[in-house]
Queue: 2 jobs
Job 1
Amino acid sequence: MSTSAEDLRAIALAEFTTAGYSATSLHRIADLAGLSKSSVLYHYASKETLLEATVAPAMHRMEEILDALKASALTPEGRAAFLSEFVDFILQYRREVNMFINQGPSLVDVPVIDQANEIVHRLADYFAANTASIEEKMRFGIALGGTAYMLCSPESMAFEADQVDEMRAALLKILMELLAPVTPPVAIGE
Amino acid sequence: MSTSAEDLRAIALAEFTTAGYSATSLHRIADLAGLSKSSVLYHYASKETLLEATVAPAMHRMEEILDALKASALTPEGRAAFLSEFVDFILQYRREVNMFINQGPSLVDVPVIDQANEIVHRLADYFAANTASIEEKMRFGIALGGTAYMLCSPESMAFEADQVDEMRAALLKILMELLAPVTPPVAIGE
DNA sequence: ACAGACTCTGACCGATCGGTCAATTATCGT
DNA sequence: ACGATAATTGACCGATCGGTCAGAGTCTGT
């Protein structure tokens, strides 16, 4: 049970998502871990390094998914398959996603967050590929931001493990409704 | 043109939403207003007071709406009417709503934010009145958090004024879809 | 011209921030 | 048992935080 390094990552992730990155001090993280601030800075060279380590796994996984997506088509089936994968991703990395979405805009100039924002843009491009209509853009924004919010809101953080299957099913259904209507809005022109 | 007081409120609102409350220093607000930090603290006794002044109008308006709601029934028509009013509210106070939703959980113990969180709870109670199903709760969370996110995301902050009518129509349509399906999920039992 | 309020400012305060560093303690391969 | 390496610590640093305060400028009504 290697304490410290991995523990710190988990503690930092929880604090960053609940209290916010800039509102979380290294001292607090150290206290929660039962260490001194110096020890935290021994494992992670800086607060920003700790942030990077915190979000890196989720970011790499999301990049994987997006890279694999390039080849895939924009068919309704393609979207449904992608959404299913995306829901699994979001459930696994709910805290990280919440950080990207909620604090991404306020953490510009932090390299790893800029990278995350770029990923969000790639995601938006996928869903807005065939349309520039305001409604479609809003659907994407609501689906993404809403999911991120809901999965980390104090209320929903309560129910865990045993209801995860039900959550996944409901989330997938709602996102399909928002992003891949069974009756396509218009025949795709090209 | 009474400078200062009202200007400061607007500047603080913009900074609190884009950079976050705890990441925004009084010094920065003063700079943006062309004043000294001392002047900011002359108009508002503390940073927290400034926050309260910033969000108070939106909070009072939302309380108005919720109070008026008590009498109204839970009929589909009631929901539709409420949603229309709610969309207007959200478009008018988009930044404030974004603050409530995104930073509410991290600003606990700030009285005015606790009050705001209570309002969100009242709202949730209205929509979850007849059901405790996970899906319904998720629908509400996604609708609320998604709308707040989308209306303050860097991309959507771009298009303004001229498209507001189109935005309202699209937003209302999407929220109706999420929260008041034309085909009620089940006949309401009681 | 004068008094009193309103507005603004710089100097200053204690606390806390992220971060450095030298020294100490634990751990472990040999 | 010993040396090396990893882990941890407290003392300390400059910067910045929110906030206080005494005073100076500005604007009134009289």
Job 2
Amino acid sequence: MSATKLLVLGIVHLSGGAHGYQVRSELQSWGAESWAKIKPGSIYHALKKAAADGLLTEHAEPGNSGPERVLYRATARGRDEMVELVRDGLRRTHDADMLNASIAMLPMLTRTDAIAQVNERVARLEAELVEQAKWREHPNRDAPEHVRDQAELWAGHARTELEWAKSLSKRLSEGAYTMADDPGSWRTVPGHLKMRF
Amino acid sequence: MSATKLLVLGIVHLSGGAHGYQVRSELQSWGAESWAKIKPGSIYHALKKAAADGLLTEHAEPGNSGPERVLYRATARGRDEMVELVRDGLRRTHDADMLNASIAMLPMLTRTDAIAQVNERVARLEAELVEQAKWREHPNRDAPEHVRDQAELWAGHARTELEWAKSLSKRLSEGAYTMADDPGSWRTVPGHLKMRF
DNA sequence: GGCCAAGTAGTCAAGCTTGACTAGCCTCTA
DNA sequence: TAGAGGCTAGTCAAGCTTGACTACTTGGCC
């Protein structure tokens, strides 16, 4: 699960530099503990790891008020890696956490790129549904009955996701959201103004 | 994620004693690596942990042909704990892995119990959908636009799951599947015959 | 003025998961 | 008949996640 990594990198990028607790609070205000199941401990770990990997830089800040804290800033490599993670998360099926995280970080992509990735997802879901329908005609004798039944649920989820992805693609085409290449995006608006989109 | 624990305990119970590789193969034949994302390493770990916790017993078997191996058998406490895990997984929303694992182990429950748990899930999903609809009328200004959009996807999944759970409940009421209290269940059929339901 | 609750900021050990690796046996084939 | 490849069976270190814990500050209330 690199959803944690994606979200943590994303918040640091969007806010133009942040310390651990800030990342934690921001994710909390997005309701991310519930849909991404991220606990505080993981956030601090992910920040340190990303810094060790050269995706973020660490600046120790003496606590002006309150305890000492560490400021993290994005590096160019970090941004590239994160954009790649978002693209991957949009395409990859069977990974709800990554999808959720990627949606949250959608405006990191340019509009055309985002549309391309979402369309790729649509294509994959359609292919998997075809595959699954085939499987249902020739069920595996080894798998018990209720395991086959479970496949039914998965197919339902896939159809829901398919409709949703199609409508997202459409909305993006119609100009919804402020994407990376739009005026007023996180790339063109200075630091502390970014967090309130 | 205790889905691993549930599946591992479940296979050992259903087969009436198994060694690690057997559990691994059985899960593989169910396609469990894909829907439960379980890797071999986790299986061996889960078996050892369960044995340490008194949920399984360990019997070293000298390898008659091939390497040495360890036989695991279920204990009474292990069965109780597993039944509780299945019930919990059926009720708990927001945890796809547990739900999948619980469905796979559905016949561990008695029919009336299973129906009760599934109905509880239905009730919870309905409540959450109401909650979510309320939230959509008064969206949180702090959360960016696409995060709200993501909620849309979740609602879609919830509706799919709701329909599915209702139909499962109905099928169970109509006598589908061989449950724990039915003749021919895993509780009444001797050991090595159990794996082919 | 003093004390408690809540907020800020983060550490740490323990536990689970992952991916790569070991090692013996069996079967087929050149 | 030697070797490759695959199946059986499992180990292990490294990495990620979790939950509990520390410590300091601020604000409010009696």
